[in-house]
Amino acid sequence: MNFLEERIVKDGVVKEGNVLKVDSFLNHQMDIKLLDQMGAEFKRRFADKPINKILTIEASGIGIACVVAQHFNVPVVFAKKSQSINLDGDMYVAEVESFTHKCINHVIVAQKFLTPEDHVLIIDDFLANGCALQGLIQIVQSSGATVEGIGIAIEKGFQSGGRIIRNLGFQLESLAIVDGMNAETGEIQFRDQSKTELNSVEKAEDEICRSATLD
Amino acid sequence: MNFLEERIVKDGVVKEGNVLKVDSFLNHQMDIKLLDQMGAEFKRRFADKPINKILTIEASGIGIACVVAQHFNVPVVFAKKSQSINLDGDMYVAEVESFTHKCINHVIVAQKFLTPEDHVLIIDDFLANGCALQGLIQIVQSSGATVEGIGIAIEKGFQSGGRIIRNLGFQLESLAIVDGMNAETGEIQFRDQSKTELNSVEKAEDEICRSATLD
């Protein structure tokens, strides 16, 4: 197990409905030393990429992105989420479906902060069905910038987001991939990333995101 | 002028209605080196305080808080904002009025992350009428923890939040206090913090926050 998997086993809490609570160190209270370790690891995994900007999405992605950014010596842009938008033409906007909240959210980035010269690393805390992440990718592509890679803290490997995004050809690096959880025993099964992909999600039913970039 | 005031003059944009846009370096795109300088300065100003936790509020406070936290070697807790709440008893909740959005927001922190043993530094990007900040203070006090200080990037000195909070006896340190702005000329007037307070806000009409901690 790596440092993040060890921490998840130590302090994560498995709840009914495939919920993994990591709010004591990742997304409500944040262990800054852990985020710093994550930054060093992402720097190692994306060492050969000409990254000049990190993009994340509010709220819990921001803390991770800012600490990771210190390892790359680049600025962070965070996308804003809003149910209602006032399209004033200076914004890139992607529509993103939220399965959790059963609604459509808008993901918004000011156009001036993404240009064709930008080489972007996308950072977020969680990846499940990947809808928000697909919205961020669409926004980067709309701007003419390049997605150099995607760094995720915890991927729910039994949902389809990771597979879809890897199939699109992106370098997606998740520090911990959870392939299964048992709320009764508290047991968590991590994917062994040193081996070939186990294709354990092949049987998962795809939650296809209905999303589109708005002009 | 200090480093933040210089940056505001260089890259801030004054808009009609006393709006100061700093989204190119502070609250949409974030200059991580600048945040790091802010962290060093807050550490200097709160050097004698036994701070063991930083509290902030989503979204734009999170990035600053996480970088500042590295200078104090402490974890960050961020309060969540929500218009609707599901009070399950494990949360501290303060009602906060938003003058901008003309609504009541709830500021929420899980009880397990604030205890009477905690010595808290509150960090945020902006201070204007101070309603959100008063909500955070209420939450810390509800938990029995101690507010050791408050660190703000930019205070609007012509609004009453700063004065109210200093009058309550808190050590409030704002790295830049804007006492006036001119949207036509783009000019920004900073308070000289080396002198005694100018009481320039005495004439400002107080926007008293109607807020309360919910049990």
Weakly predicted, low-confidence segments of chain A: 198-204
Largest sheet of chain A: 9 strands, mixed
- The count of β-strands of chain A is 12
What is the averaged pLDDT score of chain A? 91
Oligomer: homodimer
GO molecular function, one term (chains A, B): xanthine phosphoribosyltransferase activity
Binding site for 5-phospho-alpha-D-ribose 1-diphosphate (chains A, B): 128-132
Function (chains A, B): Converts the preformed base xanthine, a product of nucleic acid breakdown, to xanthosine 5'-monophosphate (XMP), so it can be reused for RNA or DNA synthesis.
Binding site for xanthine (chains A, B): 20, 27, 156
List key phrases describing it.
Rossmann fold, homodimer, 215 residues, two-stranded antiparallel sheet, alpha/beta, transferase (chains A, B), 5 helices, Xanthine phosphoribosyltransferase (chains A, B), xanthine phosphoribosyltransferase activity (chains A, B)
Set out the fold topology.
Two copies of one chain form a homodimer.
Chain A: H1 3-11, E1 13-15, E2 19-21, E3 29-30, H2 32-45, E4 53-57, H3 60-72, E5 76-82, E6 91-98, E7 103-110, E8 119-127, H4 131-143, E9 146-156, H5 161-167, E10 172-181, E11 188-190, E12 212-214
Parallel strand pairs in A: 4-5, 4-8, 8-9, 9-10
Antiparallel strand pairs in A: 1-2, 5-7, 6-7, 6-12, 10-11
Helix pairs in contact in A: 2-3
